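Researcher: Let's run the pair from yesterday's discussion. Sequence first, then tokens, for each.
Model: Starting with the first of the pair.
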Amino acid sequence: MQTITQAAVETTGAAPLVEASGPGRLVSLDVFRGITVMAMILVNNPGDWGHIYAPLEHAKWHGCTPTDLIFPFFLFIVGVSLVYALGAVRQKTENHGRAMARIARRAAVLYGLGLFGALFPHFDFSTARLPGVLARIALVFLICGIIFLKTNWRTQARLLVGILILYSVLLQLVPVPGIGPANLEPETNLGAWLDRLLLGTAHLWKQSKTWDPEGVLGTLPAVGTGLAGMLAGQWLRRPAPDAATKVVWLFVFGAGAVVLGMIWNGWFPINKALWTSSFVLYTGGLATMALAALYWLCDVQGLRNWIKPFVVFGVNAITVFFLSGLVPRLLNMIKIPATNGKAVGLCAWLYDTFFVPYLSPINASLVGAIVCVLIWLGILWVMYEKRVIIKV
């Protein structure tokens, strides 16, 4: 089923290292990944950033919208994928060194893609954002990959609990140097202080300049999200009396994590930008239940007549995520004269010409995002039919 082109580079933890038709592959995982990446593109490409429906925006600070689920779901999927990618390698300790070298190389490629996206098109290193979505994926993949090779599930569960407690202590009890008591405010929390100390304001998120939603300290609980995915993946791979037992217990674990996250929210609020411990539990629980439902539908019941649009996104997930951020900037470098006499980028011109005159501002913005998803669906569908799977 799967042929990789000559131009392809090797896989990341965002995709299993097994053939698509292989016995160890989860169809549900490709579907889950595809749904998640499709949602990423939808929320990242509105026609107008000033007009967005509330569920398609991130929470202003504390709280969680559907959009806030997308990134933790992806990191959870990275964790599950590692189990299927490295499960056989872990049993052969003599291959661990080579496997870790591959993990490190792939993490470096992921980070490099993120850095390229931050630099393009001016390539000014003095102001390039050093954290970012791909940077966080790379770090979580690297750290979780090594942990998976060197530990068993019990140790991983203990690490997850320890990370969540440690992060809560750091953010809620440790005073912030030069600022004062521990706090959870955007610019004055311990993570924001550490980002400014290590990276300087020039290399942080441009919208804030004083803190970064993918900052250094937040990588610690993000690893916890990856560990949650690893634990779910190992549960799916373990021998069990039947698939129904696996699914039921995944729902139990997931629901329990959601409840614990909501309880913890009372004193350590659910917050994506801080990636709080309650956020890890809440989103990890929802991801576990989503995976359980998809596993039951796709892998157990074999109900697959609806999945192809998501699979074509899932098998080229990193590729489409990277290009969906790069291509609009390339197109906007092409300038088109506007009615007011000023030149606008091609993407902006297309939006102003074919969407704005016919729809309300907020609906024009939504339809523009949907069209963007459909365009990428068409491109990825052709790639899938031609068996072009670019693995990063």
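Model: Moving on to the second of the pair.
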Amino acid sequence: MLDTIDQSMDTASPKADKESTVADLDNCQFFNEMRHSDGTIREEFAQIQQWLANKSLAEIESLNHQAKQHFVYQGITFTVYNDAEGTERTIPLDLVPRIIAKKQWDIVSEGCKQRVKALNAFLNDIYHGQEILKEGIIPAEQVLQHEAYQPWMLNFDVKGKIYSHISGVDLIRDEVGDFFVLEDNLRTPSGVSYMLESRKISEKLMPEICSQYRLQGVEHYPQLLKQTLLESTDVDNPLIVILTPGHFNSAFYEHAFLAREMDIPLVSAQDLFVENGKVYLKSVKGRMQVDVIYRRLDDDFLDPLAFRADSILGVAGLMSAYRNRTVVIANAPGTGVADDKSIYPYVDDMIRYYLNEQPILKNVPTYQCRKPEELDYVLANLEKLVVKEAQGSGGYGMLIGPQAEAEQIEEFRQKLKFRPHLYIAQPTLKLSVSPILSEQGFVDRHIDLRPFVLSSPQEMRIVPGGLTRVALQEGSLVVNSSQGGGIKDTWVVDT
């Protein structure tokens, strides 16, 4: 099997054709998570490489099939909104893990905590003194006129100044292996259930190699999340619920999974009501006062009396109860202004301003199309850049210049000229690659990483690992499941 692995890796080198990335066209090398540039195996991958070498291709394919069947049996799905049939799909899992040495993980962990701490400080500032805006570090109009900025939150104190209790930080590695932050997720970050289910499958199908590695555990994440939510309120023995938009939401499986793991109710709008400034749950025991709501729907749908009047997903009067401090909402309304891609370029400044520290993790260079001089550069170099909607997600609304047809480039050119403030642009990234099992054997595909940071007034917590997403299509840089991506288990190991 060792020869098969070596040969299949050789055939997976980037193709210099129309479908290749800009890095392929420039004959640049990607950072390989498994191998050094000379082809030798990295220390942290040595044991898994030997394990794979001792298996036949048929055995690995059988294990991969069993993993897929587990996802089908457990109903681990996501919904593709732009599919004409609105289909639910099982997310593809590749059994070969992504492995991170603990010394590297320690840097990632501290960098993510630092970043989320600064973002929470920023949110507290812009809803109170607005000092960072007054000093001109961030343009005031870019924040105060932002559609995610919520006047409801002005001068409203949240416990411990924690606005984003659950945060996801998307990371990539460049061609030399340095970690970069691609974006922040502070509204309703998803994917943690995939992280946990991937680990269950690894331990079930590869128990011997998992035991050899003595993997850093992630299974306690639901308990850490529950503890974080408990610490968000001063109420003794509080009632915590997860508020879901319902079964047709793309992350509904995760909502149900976390509710089950934390042993708390999963509720929809029809299960809650507000009376005398308090939120109540309808239950077989009668009405019960709700103290903490872990909401998994966007601000616009939270309360039809405060936001969208046509929302049937939210609870009428919820924001009034929130302002009366009878209920905690996690994450807090108004966090979206801090994870917008047009605010992202300023996070390094936030870290220096609020924490008086240098950023541990780097930002990807970003052009703000709202700035005339940066727009000019973007328009002149569209074929080299990735253009994103500032509030886009899921891999939608993107232009990957090196892979785009001339018509697509021209379409985006007109969009940028018409509404430049809605877009940012970045260099085409040389995302690191990791092996996956394909129909052709083992091939390298691009990956990213989303660690999850939990913040409470008492403590910041992060489990060792995260969600590794993988672009299953050859040459693709888009790892989102909605765009054909899959997932891998993420192992943090001592070396």
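Researcher: Give me one sentence on the second I can quote.
Model: The chain has 15 helices and 23 strands.
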